[in-house]
Amino acid sequence: MHDMEGNKLMDVIVVGAGLSGLAAAKLLHETGLDVLVLEARDIVGGRTLTEHNSNVGYVDLGGAFVGPTQNRVLRLADEFGIKTHLTNEDEDIVYYSQGKSERNRSDSYPACGFLELLDMNNFLRLIDEMGEEIPPEAPWKAQHAKEWDQMTMQQFLDKHVWTNFGRGFAKGLVNVNATSEPCEVSVLWFLWYIKCCGGQKRIFSTTNGGQERKFVGGSQQISQRIAEKLGKDRVLLGHPVCHINQTEEGVTVSDIDGQKFRAKRVIIASPLPLQNKITYDPPLPSLRNQLIQRIYMGSVIKTFCYYKAAFWKDKGYRGIASIDDDAAMVEFTMDDTNPDGKHPVLMGFVLADKAKRFVAMTLEERKEKTCRLYAKVFQSDEALHPIHYEEKNWLGEQWSGGCYTAMMPPGFLTNFGEEIRRPVGNLYFAGTETATQWSGYMEGAVQARERAAREILYAMKRISKDEIWQEEKENPVVKAYPFENSFLERNLPSVGEFLKCVSVTTSLAVGSAGLCLYWRKR
Questions:
Q1: Would you say residue 2 has pLDDT above 70?
Q2: Which of the four pLDDT bands, split at 50, 70 and 90, describes residue 515?
Q3: Which residues neighbour 332 within 8 Å (Cβ) at sequence distance 6 or greater?
Q4: Strand pairing of 100-104 and 57-60?
Q5: pLDDT tens, 116-133?
């Protein structure tokens, strides 16, 4: 079908060839619709990016991990015969704080004092307990939505976390999971983010959690295989979209070179902040226009130090280290060695404000600083002598703006949350930030695409409204198991409750002793 100017009129144009956009195009194509994908980069995959060279074999510079309950992305991988491998959990982990390394077998809590244990347990318990009242599809409808959305996570920590160790632990969890500082994000958003992933144990854990597995060959190949299936004529690279014009006859999408493409409907699957680079005619509705001005991407640099041998394993370490040190560049490490055992590598995350600070260094300076830190953390001079170094600075990625996902500051969800997925005329919105399960992850990207694609099918009267949101069957191989909270996890007091109890007990004891002394004197 062609328009009055002779241009082919597509059924749907998808803006963005990341995992979300390609997955949406795949679903619509399989229903018989004529679909075109426009991508700004010269490659597909978006925030999944797999580097291949002789020094690394392959390495995921972007989104990498997958685990139980992430059934949609696992289904796509299975369709293309892409296997997963388990993350190593055989040896000890390291907690490094202010120049000292502590070895720990469990990744639940670092070795610490009694009050610190109470503090961390209460913080994690609160995340789940408060999250129970948040509807994943509409967090702005939670009973305490206004209160929690007006509070930053830093204010939450100041109110509920008592010890210095506990504050460092909690701050680190915000940094590594949200790639932002606690002062940047709202409590409502962070609680919702954790809730969407199945709770704090599911998102933080390796086994049975979000870091359980990786894809053999890298995560970007899922997008590459979808693009191959769609065909080169349906996935056009190097076409940054700069203008979208809606009329009664359809939607015209223009790229920066002036090329125009026409469709009945459009799905925008680019990161939310980048949608502000597009001009819209007619202008976006007021709240949508304000929405894309008030949201920003997280900050992270992924670093990879390659060695002749995995020296950390020889010392009984699994390569995982949590680093609480203001002077340290890297905050969290993992052994990212490929399953064939070749190219031993330590992956390190430079997060949030540290990413903003250390991005001013040269690549060589970051490499040297990282290796010096690893020598201290893993107590080995072998860390000083890498044979290769890779990194990905996501802060400077023009067509992502950052990673892992868009962060939502105080006041955002309660003012603009309802607009995130709301269609504008014939414009529909995908992207992992619009998901209600594993938002910010590959799974969230796939769920968002299915919802956006089915919204179009519903508008075309091909499916019912009840079919827009669909649950996914559990993957037959990657199964989820419930997390059991121990008696102590459920019942240990907070530091405040404990100190109050001690204070009351002490007062009673002192009062009793004083009374006895009084009667003796009588």
A1: no
A2: very low
A3: 172, 176, 320, 321, 322, 323, 348, 349, 351
A4: unpaired
A5: 999 999 999 999 999 999
Question: Strands of 213-215's sheet, edge to edge?
Answer: 65-66, 213-215, 84-86
Averaged confidence pLDDT in the chain = 93
3-state secondary structure (DSSP) of residue 355: helix
Q: What is the pLDDT of residues 138-181, one digit of tens each?
A: 999 999 999 999 999 999 999 999 999 999 999 999 999 999 99
Phi then psi dihedrals of residue 2, to 5 deg: -125, 155
Q: What percent of the chain has pLDDT over 90?
A: 90
Give the contacts of 159 (CB within 8 A, at least 6 positions apart).
Answer: none
Between CA 144 and CA 154 the distance in angstroms is 18
> How would DSSP label each residue in 405-431?
-EE--TTHHHHHGGGSS--BTTEEE-S
Which whole-number Å values give the CA distances from 94 to 145, 324, 348, 378, in the listed order? 37, 11, 13, 8
Structure tokens given for 520: 């003796």
Give residues with Cβ within 8 angstroms of 414, minimum separation 6. 140, 145, 146, 149, 188
What's the confidence (pLDDT) of residue 408? 97
Rounded-to-integer distance, Cα 244 and Cα 253, Å: 5
Return the structure tokens found at 127.
């995340």
Could you tell me which residues are beta bridge partners of residue 94?
Answer: 103, 321
Range of weakest confidence among 5-19, 182-196, 357-371: 5-19
pLDDT for the residue 417: 96
Give 497-512 as a DSSP string: HHHHHHHHHHHHHHHH
Joined together, the tokens standing for residue 395 give 């802060």
Task: State how far the Cα of 185 lies from the Cα of 294, in Å rounded to an integer.
Answer: 12
Rounded to whole angstroms, the Cα distance separating 371 from 229 reads 42
How far is the C-alpha of 253 from the C-alpha of 8, rounded, in Å?
Answer: 13
Could you check whether the bond before residue 428 is cis, i.e. omega within 30 degrees of 0? Answer: no
